[in-house]
Amino acid sequence: MKERRSSDAIIKRNFFVRLLLNRDWWQVCSHQDGLLVKGSDKEFVLSLQEMLQPAEMLSGILGTRLIIKTNRAVHSVAGFKQTELSPLIEKLNSRLQLHAENLLRAECLDLHTVSQSIQQFLDRKQYARDSKRRQLLDLAIRANAVQQRSFWSFYAKPEQLDSAAVVSKFIQDSENLVREANAYFVENELSAYKKFFDTVERKPLTLSQRRSCVIIEDNNLVLAGAGTGKTSTMIGRAGYLLASNQAMPDELLMLAFARKAAGEMQERMDKCLRPLLAAGTPTIKTFHALGLEIIGKVEGRRPSLSILAEDSHAFTRFIDEQLDILLSDAIYKSKIVRFFTSYLYPYRNPFDFDSMQEYNDYICKHEMRTLQGEAVKSYEECEIANFLLQHGVSYKYEEPYVIDTAGPDHRQYKPDFFLPDYNIYIEHFALDKAGRPPKHIDQSSYLAGIKWKREQHNLHKTTLIETYSHLKREGRLQTVLAEELTKAGVKLVRRPDQELLAELREKGAISDFAKLIQDFVILFKQSYLAWQELWEKAKGYIDTERMHCLLEIFKPIYESYQKYLQERREIDFADMIAKAIEHVESRKFDSPYTHILVDEFQDISDSRARLLTALKRQRPECVLFAVGDDWQSIYRFTGSDIGLTKHFEKSFGSSAVTALDTTFRFNNMIGAVSSSFVLKNPEQISKTISSNSTVQDPAVSLIRALDSEQGVRLALNAIDKTVRLKRGQESSVMILARYNFQLSPEALSRTIIRNLGGLDIECMTAHAAKGKEADYVIVLGVDKGKHGFPSEKVTDPLLEFLLPQEESYKFAEERRLFYVALTRARHRVYLVYNPLQASSFIKELLNQKYPVCTTEFDESVLHLAIADVPCPRCMSGSLIPKNGEHGSFVGCNNYPFCRYTERGCPQCSYLMARNGRFRTCANENCRGVIPICPACGGEMVKRNGPYGPFWGCRNYRQNSAFICTHTEKRIDFSGIRV
Q1: CA–CA distance from 862 to each of 95, 797, 833, 844 (Å)?
Q2: Fewest 10 Å CB contacts: which of 181, 738, 751, 930?
Q3: Neighbours of 334 (CB within 10 A)
């Protein structure tokens, strides 16, 4: 301990007070580090660093009390003389003040600097970006720690208190302060650049477009609905940045997805900006062009793009050639045959389904067909059929049983398989090892059916072989089937793989498989997964065996493709992005870009987003400006991830989201239908788009026609009539379909388009129409099914592994594609559909009372409207009237995958809807009603008995295997029209 100076006076406590209070302290004196305290057997120093505030003294009956607060305790000792203690405290506090001011002066340097930075940040001369706000907030919190000093309130100087006030306010309310500053900045910029925004395009930019241009957040998402002027906004943004000297042309990176789109935007931008700006205009690039540029600068040479990447037909030929080469190998050939006979469809155990509807959806979507072409009711039946074909056993699927078992209320018994060469039947039952059917099946009815079938074979002495679902799960289905067939005398001779492959080639199955391989190669390269990663990922799939079988087939083709590129020193489109990412992330490429502008951002993929992130990371000041519309995201099958738009801030960081809210394309009634339709999916970003054009009547018309040609003809005639009334003004018409083959010239051009000289007609798919517009739009084929709209075509699970996460909302992307189709029209849309196969979209428009027109055409030229009556068996189809060899009946439009049939209305033969325990005729002009048996679901019929009339179930039949004895004296028809 340092010695005290000799001039420092020692102050002692009153002896009697010390004795009375029994305190250890008895004297204090000033010390160079603070206050020296001495007791009876020790001494210590209360240092200035420990003191939390100035020392105090308090007079009382025991003399003057000394009070000192330190960071360890509050020291309070009485018994001093005031005249002695006062000079000591004054000297101590004076030294404490000097000590505190020195500390505060040093620590407040940061506080003052941060205060100045905050004031500059909020000076409204530039847009206050959130990344800077966060940085300043962190600095402010650290600098503000000086206020936690205990002596801050005693010794802080006015200028320090002023800085602290600025910093404290920013900590407490930075978001609102920034919001206010930015609001002022935006309004000021809109005023300052009003002339520019008035003249940059042919028409002045809207307020929402202008605001989108001047908001300079770290990341900016502009939600540009159909026809709201996204290109004008892109040009306006680039021009504003150049005009305001926030960037030079070579600091702007403007990106589009397609060369044609980039070229069109470049031409339009040059035309708009060059007359206004002397600095020139930036070059608009595609992502692939950017990738090539980065690769060329880093590697010293631009690699050549493979013809296989540019020409899909050449790529298809390459895949076919590789298949031919590989099929000369017996092992590879056997893998291909194994796939087609055992793994053609993705397998799901029937016991994994929660409902019959879910199971039937699975069967219908995958269109389970055998190699012979029969539509079957289960995956396991398909495997059995293919096994028989592969082993040279002739069979017939669902051949009527040799004995006529048909009755008045049930059809002829048709076993699953009949082997005509051996008079053997095969039934495959969905039973587990305990003999129980799946939970989604009516247990008692299904088991009763099995019992009845066995009894029929026993009764009529026919041979029945049974197989069960649990055998498939155990991997023994084919083994057990082979054993049972052999026991029954069936000769199994495995057909040569070459023979089966020849049949598959003839049916086009190998070509379809080659297309699957082609898609896989492209998506696999875009995924940037290692082969082993994909193999491990496949292990988590419900049908791992199929996945691994496919990967074993694909791997040598993929390796041949990579070898082909390497030998020629060529790359494909996936390589362009992958190599560019590698060079940017490793900082071999130095980004010159301070602003990145991306068009059609809803089409962004994970790899392209990764490239953007890498470029931004190199330059923290770099700003991302993305223009897109989540309502028009329709390219998931190429790798586009709508999640990057819907969760923009999560993906890229601090963001500002603005919306272009006025469309200059379609009228308000098209907007009312299209916006409501796309927003049925709650995951879409909600926004309101007003139309520049207003009409009073519906502008979306529905046309019922049995074939597209008839419907298109009706629509074109109506359009032609409208155009003629406009005194010959030429109008454009866009005929859209879900698939290209639906637009064949044979189906449309010759018979429809002739003699319509006033119409400029163009045919294309809904995907190809993206970004285009016409006066009138005709959408044909809005039907249900694999090639309907929505398309029910299923993506192979192997490709699903490589695509972005599928959305949970049913037909989410198809709904957006339908929105795109609707919003191509300026004046009117015509939707052509087959009422016997009406799609779920048509049913929604009708059943949920959208403002659509169903009365534009004379009913006499349209096909009869069909009521929407769900199929009670599969629940995914609808019942429709049909005609068969035995007359009219009602059946499911999912046939042949759902074979449900029933009798039509007893009065008019039309289909009947379910209404509680009744079936009521769906024909508005008929009053037919049939009560349903609550015991078995059969029809109730009125009968006469010994005690008078009564109601009995039609399924009551003597000497029948199926019998229902339910009767009722009377049935209450109240509330049901009769």
Answers
A1: 102, 41, 11, 20
A2: 751
A3: 11
Query: How open is the CA angle 102-104-108, to the nearest 5 degrees?
Result: 130
CATH topology agreement for domains 193-303+573-660 and 666-861: yes
**Domain made up of 193-303+573-660: CATH architecture:** 3-Layer(aba) Sandwich (3.40)
pLDDT for residue 668: 96
Single pTM value for the model: 0.85
* Contact between 810 and 357 (Cβ < 8 Å): no
**Is the CB of residue 76 less than 8 Å from the CB of residue 11?**
no
* Residue 386 vs residues 36, 429, 500, 913: alpha-carbon distances, Å: 101, 17, 11, 39
User: What is the DSSP code string of 325-342?
Assistant: HHTTSHHHHHHHHHHHHH
User: Which structure tokens are listed for 102?
Assistant: 């020195």
- 735 touches 743 (CB < 8 A): yes
User: Is residue 323 within 8 Å of residue 339, measured between CB atoms?
Assistant: no
Cis peptide bond prior to 346, omega within 30° of 0: no
**Going edge to edge, which strands form the sheet with 940-945?**
940-945, 948-953, 967-968
Residue 530 backbone dihedrals phi, psi, to 5 degrees: -80, 155
Residue 807 and residue 813 in contact, taking contact as beta carbons nearer than 8 Å: yes
Beta bridge partners, 896, equal none
The three-class DSSP label of residue 258 is coil
State what percent of residues in the chain have pLDDT above 90: 55
Residues in the chain: 978
CA pseudo-torsion sign 636, 639, 643, 649? negative
In terms of CATH, what superfamily is 666-861? P-loop containing nucleotide triphosphate hydrolases (3.40.50.300)
Three-state SS string over 577-598 comes to HHHHHHHHHCCCCCCCCCEEEE
Q: Which amino acid is at 84?
A: E
Q: Is residue 736 classed exposed, middle or buried when 0-12, 13-18 and 19+ CB atoms within 10 A define those classes?
A: buried
Contact criterion met (CB below 8 Å) for 267 and 241: no
Indicate the domain borders of the chain.
10-80, 99-189, 193-303+573-660, 309-328+508-571, 346-505, 666-861, 903-968
Question: Tokens 């708009």, residue?
Answer: 272
Q: Where are the alpha helices (DSSP H) in 643-746?
A: 643-646, 648-652, 668-678, 708-725
CATH T-level assignment (fold) for domain 346-505: Endonuclease; Chain A (3.40.960)
- Angstrom distance (rounded) from CA 756 to CA 723: 10
CB atoms within 10 A of CB 903: 16
Residue 608 has a pLDDT of: 96
Is the distance from CB of 879 to CB of 870 less than 8 angstroms?
Answer: yes
Secondary-structure class of domain 10-80 per CATH: mainly beta
Report yes or no: 420 and 394 within 8 Å, Cβ to Cβ. yes
pLDDT digits (tens, 9 = 90+) for 222-239: 999 999 999 999 999 999
Count CB neighbours of 729 within 10 A. Answer: 11
List, as one string, the DSSP characters of 409-427.
Answer: TB-----SEEETTTTEEEE
CA distances from 506 to 299, 418, 503, 511, 617 (A): 48, 26, 5, 10, 54
Those residues of the chain that have pLDDT short of 50 are 1-7
The pLDDT of residue 1: 41
DSSP 164-199: HHHHHHHHHHHHHHHHHHHHHHHHHHHHHTHHHHHH
Q: How far apart are CA 724 and CA 712, in angstroms?
A: 18
Query: To 10 degrees, the CA torsion angle through 640, 641, 644, 645?
Result: 70
Give one DSSP letter per residue of 605-659, joined into a string. BHHHHHHHHHHHHH-TT-EEEEEE-GGG---GGGTB-THHHHTHHHHHSSEEEEE
Between CA 704 and CA 712, with CA 708 as vertex, the angle to 5 degrees is 85
pLDDT for the residue 2: 45
